[in-house]
Amino acid sequence: MQQITLIRPDDWHVHFRDGEALKETVPHHAQRFGRAIVMPNLKPPITSVSLAKNYRQQIVAATPKDFDFNPLMTLYLTQMTSPEDIEQAKESGIIYGVKFYPAGATTNSDAGVTDIFRLIPTLQTMAEVGLPLLIHAEVTDPAVDVFDREKIFLESVIKPLLQKVPDLTVVLEHVTTKEMADFVIDAGDQVAATVTPQHLLYTRNDIFKGGIHPHLYCLPILKREQHRERLREIVKSGHKRFFLGTDSAPHSQSAKESSCGCAGIFSAPCAIEIYAEIFELLGALDKLEGFSSCYGADFYGLPRNKTQITLIKKPWAVPESYPLDSKNRIIPLKASETLHWQLT
Ligand code: DOR
Ligand code: ZN
User: Fold this and answer.
1) Nearest CA to ligand 1 atom 3
2) For residue 321, is it within any domain?
3) Residues 41 and 107 sit within 8 Å (Cβ to Cβ)
4) Is residue 7 within a helix (H) or strand (E), and if so which, with residue range?
């Protein structure tokens, strides 16, 4: 196949950051995607409708004029988020999900949740008004091995939580393990997962191949081959509750290449191109459109996009780096490598 035309895809999990960085991060998404679920882990986090409105305006202002890109905002769940906050979020018409970061799990999660089981009334209101809970599914207990954090979170948090609030709509973000993926398959129609390009492409071996690769460090961390294999099988099967979420998470080159490097992989400049490459490798290009453009919209109860994008088979080299702001550069996923699908 030399050309693929897809219903314009959506990204159901992205980090744009704020300030100067928006001018660099948002255009990559506007070119490729119709909509994106925008993560709220700014400093300070997006904990109210007014902060979300203001952040949305900044993203719209950073969107190039010729693109019709719709940022879908999220609220950052804290121990203080009340049922009234949820009702206001729903009424705002701009908020599409509430992000649950266990406190300390990842970048800017300090203000996150310390005990989700004390937020049951808030979660019940989410179930009532129809706002999904978007979950960073990792335990934060430092005694737990970093590679087991998702698997243990499934048993200690997800399963008991869904017993208490069975009608809650849940997206397990950036699924990385076969245990979590199989749980999603067995769960009801109100449970879905986003899948990143990096967790389909790489295993934990790649982080350490010939030396340490800080640009392959993200959270949840890359896992063993058996987990990548299971994720690949599932997306290849065209399962309708697994859909595109890049988790593109920009950090400056200096913040990544440091004695204590930040977690996050920046895939925005070539996200759909990389997914196309993965689906082709799997012999499943026919399943790409469902994954990238249909299942997420269907799950969120939104219409599929009306426009299309076209990718052509034409090799191009991903730039070595991009500007992040006036002082910093950022290294993208697949930097300096050749990709075979190109956006027209
Ligand atoms: O690797 C990650 N980076 N994982 C997250 O959960 C957060 C993200 C970020 O914001 O940098
Ligand atoms: Zn994320």
Assistant:
1) 264
2) no
3) yes
4) strand 3-7
The answer to whether 132 touches 95, Cβ cutoff 8 Å, is: no
Q: 208 alpha carbon to ligand 2 midpoint, in Å? A: 22
Asked if residue 64 is part of any domain, the answer here is yes
The answer to whether residue 86 sits within a structural domain is yes
- Which residue range is the domain that position 74 belongs to? 9-304
Q: Residues near ligand 1 with C-beta < 6 Å?
A: 15, 41, 106-107, 136, 218-219, 249, 263-264
Measured by CA distance, the residue closest to atom 10 of ligand 1 is: 107
How many domains, the chain? 1
pLDDT, one tens digit per residue, over 93-102 is 999 999 999 9
CATH of the domain at 94: 3.20.20.140
CB neighbour burial string for 324-336, b if at least 16 within 10 angstroms, e if fewer = bbeebebbbbbbe
How confident is the model over 247-290, as pLDDT tens digits?
A: 999 999 999 999 999 999 999 999 999 999 999 999 999 999 99
Residue with tokens 């693929």: 4
For residue 4, being part of any structural domain is answered with: no
User: What is the C-alpha to C-alpha distance for residues 244 and 261, in angstroms, rounded to an integer?
Assistant: 26
Q: Using one digit for the tens of pLDDT, what is the confidence trace for 214-251?
A: 999 999 999 999 999 999 999 999 999 999 999 999 99
User: Does the active-site annotation cover 286?
Assistant: no
Atom of ligand 1 nearest to the CA of 251: 11
